[in-house]
Amino acid sequence: MSDQQPPVPDEPVASQPPPAPPPGPVTAPYPYGQPPLQTPARPQAIWAMVLAIIPCLFTWIAAVVLAIIALTRRKDGQDHGRGFAIAALIIVGAWIVIGLAVAIIVGVFSGVERDSEGSVSSGGRVDVTDVKVGDCIVDDDIEGETSYTVTLVPCSESHLYEAYANFELPDGDYPGDEKASSLSEDGCADRFESYVGTAYEESELGVTYLYPQKSSWTMDKGVTCLLTEDVKTTGSLKDAQR
User: Fold this and answer.
1) Nearest C-alpha neighbor of 151 from the set 132, 134, 127
2) CA 192/CA 190 separation, integer angstroms
3) Cα 211 vs. chain centroid, distance in angstroms?
4) Is residue 37 a contact partner of residue 78, using CB atoms and an 8 Å limit?
5) What's the CA gap between 176 and 222, in Å, rounded?
6) Cα R_g (the chain), whole angstroms
């Protein structure tokens, strides 16, 4: 017989439960957790730019409001159309500048008043194309300069020039500064006697003229002929026979 003993079975080992998953973020319903993401304001920014283009005070106000909303919500990391919002504000600003410029121009050029016969009764600045026969001009820097506006006064007030004729140069391409000046001088000489009562060659009065430039040729071909005594005077030179 053998002295060996049968092997003793190993003691059973207790099974271990699987490891627990790592803790994750705890979610909670709003308002106790994180607030929901804001709705992107990009559509408002686009509408702001569209409304800014329309020349209307109410649409400008709406455009500014929508643009401000878009700009104040851009800090949450979403695309709220910042470029459209800024463009809307720039467009509204441009409209305002244009409006102010127009208001200033209208204010400057609305000073001239005429009586029932068309004579200037209250002076002011006008475009050179609005000078009429019989108007008196007080400016002393017309000759040799490019003038776009002039100051009219009643002829009873001190002035340097008096308009005595208006006519247009022939149609066609711009003839050049020298030719345009020559045509204007000839046209003013031809019309001198009918206004003053004395032939151009025999008069003691001086003549100058406002004539079109190449930059304005497509819109304005008019010439305005001006009388002058070379010093400021009062009264009209019509039928002066001098």
Assistant:
1) 127
2) 6
3) 27
4) yes
5) 15
6) 42
Q: How far apart are CA 162 and CA 140, in angstroms?
A: 12
Residue 69, judged by CB atoms within 10 A of its CB (0-12, 13-18, 19+), counts as middle
Beta bridge partners of 208: 226
Contact (CB, 8 A) for 51 and 88: yes
Quote the Cα angle for 63-67-73, to 5°.
150
For residue 226, give the 3-state DSSP assignment. strand
Amino acid (1-letter code) at residue 91: I
Half-sphere exposure in the Cβ direction for 218 (13 Å, CA):
1
| Residue 159 tokens, joined | 């002035």
Residues present in the chain in total: 242
Nearest to 55 by CA among 47, 43, 63: 63
What is the number of helices (H) and of strands (E) in the chain?
5, 8
Helices (H), the chain: 42-53, 57-72, 82-109, 177-190, 192-196
pLDDT, tens digit only, all 242 positions of the chain: 445 556 555 555 555 666 666 655 555 554 544 554 445 667 888 888 888 898 888 888 988 998 888 888 756 566 667 888 889 899 999 999 988 887 776 665 556 888 888 888 888 888 888 899 999 999 877 776 777 888 999 999 999 999 999 999 999 999 999 999 999 999 999 999 999 999 999 999 999 999 988 888 988 899 999 999 989 999 999 998 98
